[in-house]
Design a protein that fits this description.
The structure is a single chain. The protein has about 90 residues and is of the alpha+beta class. The chain has 2 helices and 6 strands, in the order βββαβββα. The protein has one domain (about 5-90). The chain has helices at about 30-40, 70-90; strands at about 5, 15, 20-25, 45, 55-60, 65. A hairpin with a 4-residue loop joins strand 5 and strand 6. The protein is globular, with a radius of gyration of 14 Å. The two termini are about 15 Å apart. Belongs to the RemA family. It comes from Megamonas funiformis YIT 11815.
Length: about 90
């Protein structure tokens, strides 16, 4: 089985199956999660110096920061799922 990947901006690709949540960074609990991940060295900053627009929480406790809106990431994942289902139906 091939791993499904999604582009989270600026050429950064992550495994869809490892994602637990994609959330906006504004709330205090999410800011705490980001700070804790930074302290534990479990933070990946994939913003390339741009403003953080989404926080991706992975199943291995890694937290990924992205400059792409959560809705955009979700749409990309959903489009890949729709395309995959189309390929399965064709076979």
């Amino acid at each position: 089985m091939q791993a499904r990947l999604v582009n989270i901006g600026y050429g950064t690709i992550i495994a869809v199956d490892r994602i637990i949540a994609v959330v906006a960074p504004e709330s205090a609990p999410i800011k705490r999660i980001v700070q804790e991940a930074k302290e534990l060295k479990n933070l990946i900053d994939a913003t390339y110096g741009r403003r953080t627009r989404s926080v991706i929480i992975m199943d291995n406790s890694t937290v990924v920061l992205s400059a792409v809106q959560p809705e955009t990431i979700t749409n990309r994942v959903n489009m890949d799922i729709i395309k995959e289902k189309g390929r399965v139906n064709e076979e």
